[in-house]
Specification:
Blueprint lengths: L2 H11 L2 E9 L5 H8 L5 E6 L18 E14 L2 E7 L10 H4 L5 E6 L8 H9 L4 E6 L9 H7 L8 E4 L4 H22 L28
Parallel strand pairs: 1-4, 1-5, 5-6, 6-7
Antiparallel strand pairs: 2-3, 3-4
């Protein structure tokens, strides 16, 4: 066997790599989810919250939060022998939203995490992926293990299309986070089959304005 033959065979055996975004508003649990499900030590770009940000960051409902992601989170999870997911957690604060456009390049899908105590914090993320036709699922992160609302009630509150999966989850738990990712993969496969597209084809990113063009906390996007 020649060296080139070996390289071809090795490439054929390599698993498919799929880029997934973990998105949502400030303090909804994105860093926690990436860390809980990643099979490698996650890359984090967290910095402590300081007094300088008191007039900028809305900590209503998340007063215990002490650090924030200023760039991205990164992790990896192997779903099967032929499929590996690379997870990119987005920053949640509005002043870092300009990074979302770069992080979305090549992403096939997204998980939008929602904190039902502050659902308005995730409207901008939902709008971002809808405008770019990037498939997503909703993960309702149960803080303190509580889920006071049903998926149907949450779907109505967020004005989601009927086909958008809404899953109750606990971002602290690996199994729960993995179930959300598997649900996203199921949606990607179904979308690919319906549209007769290749699963690994990246979606277009020119379908809407950059996220930093959105004003306020995104609550005006509610229907």
């Amino acid at each position: 066997m020649t060296g080139s033959d070996s390289a071809v065979r090795g490439a054929a055996a390599a698993p498919d790599a799929v880029k997934i975004l973990i998105a949502g508003g400030f303090g909804v649990g994105k860093t926690t989810m990436v860390g809980s499900v990643s099979e490698i030590a996650p890359l984090r770009t967290e910095e402590p919250l300081t007094m300088a940000g008191l007039d900028v960051d809305d900590l209503d409902g998340i007063e215990e939060k002490q650090a924030t992601t200023v760039a991205l989170d990164f992790g990896r999870i192997t779903i099967s022998d032929d499929l590996v997911l690379y997870l990119f957690g987005t920053p949640g604060q509005q002043r870092f939203w300009f990074m979302w456009n770069d992080l979305a390049l090549g992403a096939l899908g997204a998980v939008v995490l929602v904190d039902v105590r502050r659902p308005e914090s995730s409207f901008a993320a939902i709008d971002f992926f809808e405008r770019r036709a990037i498939p997503f699922v909703i993960g309702v992160n149960g803080f303190h293990g509580e889920h006071p609302y049903t998926p149907e009630e949450i779907r109505d509150a967020l004005a989601l299309p009927a086909g958008t999966p809404v899953l109750l989850c606990d971002a602290r738990k690996r199994g729960s986070s993995r179930e959300v990712l598997v649900a996203l993969l199921d949606r990607l496969i179904a979308t690919s089959a319906r549209d007769d597209t290749v699963f690994r084809s990246a979606p277009r990113l020119d379908a809407g304005p950059p996220l930093e063009g959105l004003e306020g906390d995104g609550s005006h996007l509610a229907v």
